[in-house]
Specification:
The complex is a heterodimer of chains A (231) and B (670). With 231 residues, chain A is mainly alpha-helical. Chain A has helices at residues 8-18, 47-76, 86-89, 92-117, 121-151, 160-193, 197-230. Chain A has 2 domains: 1-45, no CATH class; 47-230, Cytochrome c oxidase, subunit III, four-helix bundle (Four Helix Bundle (Hemerythrin (Met), subunit A)). Chain B has a two-stranded antiparallel ribbon. The chains are: A mainly alpha (231), B mainly alpha (670). Chain B: Residues 39-558 form the Cytochrome oxidase subunit I profile domain.
Chain lengths: 231, 670
């Protein structure tokens, strides 16, 4: 019902000048507003931006879940109830390998997305597979760690500290496992359907997810494992 | 095979839940038979259950919320009558049943009554007000709604099978640990709230993305209606704090199911950690509910005063101020923890300061009415009732925010009166104002005016008669959650309170009658113009009920109060804008993924509650399979042909032209 014929950018600039209601309007310098960026002047953003943005918001909420588990660990770190202290249960050598595997998997994950941007199915699949294998190695090492601790009687039921330790590290491990399931599904989808628009969006979200898990792990590596060797 | 589940889980010896269950099952069966006989299933399935239309989902949220409000109100009636009867007497509710009732009342009212209603309004309104066709993720929106419904289902199943928690609506450990509460009650609570919490988070992400990335052309931030601002602030809080609830309940679940020691009082557990974490969610949750309520009132005050909202920008600032400060006040729920003078002082001051933001809003609403032509229609009555009620509730809140005073009134009936004062006066009044206000936009006809006003006056008077005595009782020293009372001097106040509940019941009856009468007289109450209240924001630019694509052509906003500007221009030129060129519209396809997900989560939750491990595993695998199937679909959108768009929009234009014509014949135009 309004002046649709006018190009959006021209219309926007004219409206900014002429609009008596332009309370609080802040022009973004001399640049014209970018169409599809969702900045208000030009209408809804492109689907890719909406999907990525929404997934970022989800990741933030996921990081808050981890924040709670970190907080619980901080509170209960000294609550050993006569059991082992955090320094006695940490095996830094294995954790170094775990960290290496996970960080490397983030790198291969980025390579896969670079291949996706080139629309190269084979390389995308190879690097996704590598990412998955490195993730698997990480999860297996973590499972071994948990098993060994359990064999010594150091289970979450033993003390508040062990509860918080298993809860935080296990929550991350669960995320990596679910990520692996997602990755396998994505590989199948890429193989069957090729690079359709929504599949590329999903690969982008997967990349964000995987890197976020890496960031969380750096927190765990530092606060749980490295600081255990100091104190 | 069936875990802990056996026939003894059906409460055969307790007549109240048994008869209630029986009646509810009968009603449900009756509805199902009616739908089948009338052949409504295809319509329900295609147009509602699998719909991804934000308006339909919003309406379903509201329907769920209203049903749960009635369920929670039934609990409230039982509590008030029990306390009035059980003075130096046992009353008619045994303690273990009474404890379940107050737990269920709180849980249902907040999480399954008020939350769905607020989410429903946000879903229904935000895309319409922003001038877009749907939310950012329509299919996930449907999943979110059905997860909430799944949680509500589990809570209500606990009435028939097993029991509900007896711990209060926030299951404080160590009472809620298996040592002290071995039954399934807390598990029902945990899984129901966990599942619906995920649904809420999905809606939160959806609305934040919609508001920040999907506004129509020209809709810059400071042109958004205040309701969109409050929805944004509320959903930012959802994204920030619902994960805290998820994590906290997950920890309690680990304690209960696997013997972890997060919150136990042995082996290094820390019960106060639960209280801190849960209120880090719980206090912002209050603002998640009340901020959109403020948004509704802002729309109502400005529409029915015929004026732009006074102090729009200070309203936005106050909203965001509340959004941030609400994250810093949680400790005022347990000043008595013993955190020390410094900590208590900090939280006391922050709790008082947050009232400043609300105060700014109150004055803005008052000044919006000042000098306006106030129309005392039903939504406006609810809003003015809110101004009075909420201000008093806020003042008693500031009193509770002072730690020394709080030590005297902590967990007393004074507290109970205070939070009902703000939640009923704030959220519930807003919901009823909003239902009245936007009902024609959803269904195409108005609600009956007289019955609406009757409902308001019953609710307003009933509220004060019920809760004013509770303030007095609190100051006299009565604590909350008492199953029986040994002090006969309190009796008069408890009797007055029960009388108030009677008036509230009349209000509920008036609401039901209003709905029935309005449906009967719908032709007389039909809204032909799409703008029944002389509205100011874009939702009133659509016909009533709004078409599934909302806008035939995406609007181009040229100032604040987008629709008011369009209307003024039409009045000035005495004609509508030129007919636009209609183009085909892409709309998301309907999807059953939401209801299937909810089915699997309900089965999973039920299986976990009763320790039926194999069934839980099956449900998880099935849910994953369902997601893969969903991810495999190729068609995401379908095209609405330009002719169809033109047909709908020309009808709308014809209605508007007729209105313009009538106004000019009446000489109402300049």
């Amino acid at each position: 019902m309004t002046d649709l014929e006018l190009p959006a950018s021209v219309g926007a600039i004219r409206r900014i000048r002429e609009d008596p209601h332009r309370l609080g309007h802040r022009a973004h310098g001399p640049r014209e507003p970018i169409v599809g960026a969702g900045h208000g002047e030009t209408g809804p953003a492109h689907k890719r931006i909406i999907v990525g943005y929404g997934f970022w918001i989800f990741l933030l909420s996921d990081i808050i879940i981890f924040a709670c588990f970190f907080a619980a660990f901080a509170v209960q770190r000294g609550s050993t109830a006569g059991g082992p202290s955090i320094g006695e249960i940490v095996d830094t050598r294995r954790v170094a390998w775990q960290t290496a595997a996970l960080l490397l998997s983030s790198y291969t994950c980025s390579l896969s997305f670079a291949a996706t941007n080139l629309r190269d199915v084979l390389r995308t699949q190879i690097f996704l597979l590598l990412t998955g294998l490195l993730g698997l190695a990480f999860v297996v090492m973590e499972a071994l760690e948990f098993l060994e601790l359990a064999n010594q009687g150091f289970t979450p039921q033993r003390s508040g500290m062990l509860t918080a330790f298993f809860g935080l590290v296990g929550c991350h491990g669960l995320h990596v496992t679910v990520g692996g399931l997602w990755l396998a599904t994505m590989m199948a989808q890429v193989q069957v359907k090729g690079f359709r628009r929504e599949i590329i969006h999903r690969l982008m979200c997967f990349n964000l997810f995987w890197h976020a898990l890496d960031i969380v792990w750096i927190g765990i590596f530092t606060i749980v494992y490295l600081m255990a060797t100091v104190a | 095979m069936f875990g802990k589940l056996s026939l003894s889980a059906i409460p055969l010896s307790e007549p109240i839940p048994l008869i209630t269950s029986f009646v509810v099952i009968l009603i449900a069966l009756g509805v199902l038979i009616l739908i089948t006989v009338k052949g409504w299933w295809p319509y329900l399935w295609h147009d509602w259950i699998t719909s991804v239309d934000h308006k339909r989902i919003g309406v379903m949220y509201c329907l769920l919320g209203v049903l749960m409000l009635i369920r929670g109100f039934a609990d409230a009636i039982m509590m008030r009558t029990q306390q009035a009867i059980a003075i130096d007497a046992p009353g008619y509710l045994p303690p273990e049943h009474y404890n379940q009732i107050f737990t269920a009342h709180g849980t249902i009212m907040i999480l399954f009554g008020a939350m769905p209603l607020v989410l429903g309004f946000m879903n229904f309104l935000v895309p319409l007000q922003l001038g877009v066709r749907d939310v950012a993720f329509p299919t996930f929106n449907s999943v979110g709604f059905w997860l909430t419904a799944s949680g509500a289902l589990l809570v209500n199943v606990s009435l028939f099978v097993g029991e509900f928690a007896r711990t209060g609506w926030l299951p404080y450990p160590p009472l809620s640990e298996t040592t002290y509460t071995p039954g399934v009650g807390v598990d029902y609570y945990l899984w129901a709230v966990q599942i619906s919490g995920v649904g809420t988070l999905i809606t939160g992400i959806n609305i934040v993305t919609t508001v920040l990335k999907m506004r129509c052309r020209g809709m810059s931030y400071l042109r958004m209606p205040v309701f969109c601002w409050t929805a944004l602030a509320s959903c930012l809080l959802i994204v920030a704090v619902f994960p805290v609830l998820t994590a906290t309940l997950a920890m309690l679940t680990l304690d209960r199911y696997l013997g972890f020691h997060y919150f136990t009082n042995t082996a290094g557990g820390n019960p106060m950690m639960f209280v801190n974490l849960v209120w880090a969610w719980g206090h912002p949750e209050v603002y998640i509910l009340v901020l959109p309520a403020f948004g509704i009132f802002s729309e109502v005050f400005s529409t029915f005063s015929g004026k732009p909202l006074f102090g729009y920008r200070s309203m936005v600032a106050a909203t965001l101020f509340i959004c941030i400060v609400s994250l810093m006040v949680w400790l005022h729920h347990f000043f008595t923890m013993g955190a020390g003078a410094a900590v208590n002082t900090f939280f006391g001051i922050s709790s008082s300061i947050i009232a400043v933001g609300t105060g700014v809003k109150i004055y803005n609403w008052i000044f919006t009415m000042y000098g306006g032509r106030v129309r005392f229609e039903t939504p406006m009555l609810w809003s003015m009732g809110f101004l009075f009620t909420f201000t008093i509730g806020g003042l008693t809140g500031v009193l509770l925010a002072v730690p020394p005073a709080d030590f005297m009134t902590h967990n007393s009936m004074f507290l109970v009166a205070h939070f009902h004062n703000v939640i009923i006066g704030g959220v519930v009044f807003a919901v009823f104002a909003g239902l009245e206000f936007w009902f024609p936009k959803a269904f195409g006809f108005r609600l009956h005016e007289g019955w609406g006003k009757a409902a308001f006056w019953c609710a307003f008077i009933g509220f004060w008669v019920t809760f004013a005595p509770l303030y007095v009782l609190g100051l006299l020293g009565m604590t909350r959650r008492l199953q029986h009372i040994n002090i006969p001097e309190w009796a008069p106040w408890l009797y007055v309170s029960v009388a108030g509940v009677g008036i509230l019941i009349l209000g509920v009856i008036a609401q039901v009658v209003q709905l029935v009468v309005s449906i009967r007289d719908r032709e007389k109450l039909r809204d032909v113009t799409g703008d029944p209240w002389d509205g100011r924001s874009l939702e009133w630019a659509t016909p009533s009920p709004a078409p599934f694509f909302n806008f035939a052509v995406m609007p181009n906003v040229e100032g604040e109060e987008a629709y008011w500007g369009i209307k003024l221009r039409a009045v000035e030129t005495q004609q509508l804008a030129e007919e636009p060129k209609y183009e085909p519209i892409e709309m998301p396809v309907h999807s059953p993924v939401g209801i299937f997900t909810a089915f699997f989560t309900s089965v999973f939750g039920f299986a976990m509650i009763w320790y039926i491990w194999w069934l839980a595993g099956v449900a998880l695998v099935a849910a994953f399979a369902e997601f893969v199937v969903f991810a495999w679909r190729d068609v995401h959108e379908y095209e609405v042909p330009a002719e169809e768009v033109a047909r709908v929009d020309r009808a709308r234009r014809a209605a508007r032209e007729a209105l313009l014509d009538r106004l000019s014949r009446q000489g109402a135009l300049p």
